[in-house]
From TrEMBL:
PROSITE patterns: HTH_LUXR_1, HTH_LUXR_2, RESPONSE_REGULATORY. Keywords: DNA-binding, Phosphoprotein, Transcription, Transcription regulation. The modification 4-aspartylphosphate is found at residue 54. It holds the Pfam family Response_reg. This is DNA-binding response regulator. InterPro entries: CheY-like_superfamily (IPR011006), NreC/VraR/RcsB-like_REC (IPR058245), Sig_transdc_resp-reg_C-effctor (IPR016032), Sig_transdc_resp-reg_receiver (IPR001789), Tscrpt_reg_LuxR_C (IPR000792), WalR-like (IPR039420). Residues 3-119 form the Response regulatory domain. One of its GO terms (biological process) is phosphorelay signal transduction system.
Length: 226
């Protein structure tokens, strides 16, 4: 059973997220929070596998809450809920180590897929979020869109063929175990490949590597399912 905490200051959003997650018998919502500080305290108390946090909340925002959760309860993985127009916040959360990013107006199935992915140790980017991150980086002086994509392809080309294959699966939201089953290797081998990929791409976490995968265009058109 995947234990989940939901944090959002809007009751209707919390109710909607809870209703979607309730359709999966393998997911249990164990607590709800109305602000970032409350979310941190409830995570410490319940120690859920996944915390679904709104980026903008009173008290401390979702990014600050995610940082505290990562520091005090590192076993809890964080998914950020975002709306259009919050691209700067997404980049901050990405740098802070959030494992997943979803748009509030996205498809319900994406929420379940994202929760399951990060609970199993993967990074999950909604395709719309990934596209916005890439475009936003280009629009804020980090290079033209075409330039960033070209640079990402060059970075990926420097990886071994196996590492490129692993990166594509990582960008598609698969966990180490799922990648291992796809490639018919032991999970420890995939873990070693992921560590090498992060080092060679110069990124700190799987979500950041997933952004590079999206920039380079190596992610499958549809997110692979477990």
């Amino acid at each position: 059973m995947i234990r989940v905490l939901i944090a959002d200051d809007e009751p209707m959003i919390r109710a909607g997220v809870r209703a979607v997650l309730a359709t999966d018998p393998g997911i249990e919502v164990v607590a709800e929070a109305v602000d970032g500080r409350d979310a941190v305290e409830l995570v410490r108390r319940h120690r859920p596998a996944v915390a679904v946090l709104d980026i903008r909340m009173p008290g401390i925002n979702g990014i600050e809450a995610a940082a505290e959760i990562r520091g005090t309860v590192p076993t809890t993985r964080v998914i950020m809920l975002t709306t259009f127009g919050e691209d700067d916040y997404i980049l901050q959360a990405l740098g802070g180590g959030a494992a997943g990013f979803l748009i509030k107006s996205g498809e319900p199935e994406e929420l379940i897929t994202g929760v399951r992915a990060v609970a199993e140790g993967a990074a999950y980017l909604s395709p719309k979020v990934a596209a916005r991150v890439v475009a936003h980086l280009a629009a804020t002086g980090a290079g033209t869109l075409a330039g960033r994509r070209s640079a990402a392809r060059d970075r990926v080309a420097a990886l071994t063929a196996r590492e490129q294959e692993v990166l594509a699966f990582l960008g598609g939201g698969l966990s180490n175990g799922q990648i291992a089953r796809r490639l018919r290797v032991v999970e420890g081998t995939v873990k070693a490949h992921v560590s090498s990929i992060l080092a060679r791409l110069g990124v700190d976490n799987r979500a950041a590597a997933a952004v590079v995968a999206h920039e380079a265009g190596v992610v499958p058109p549809q997110t692979p399912q477990p």
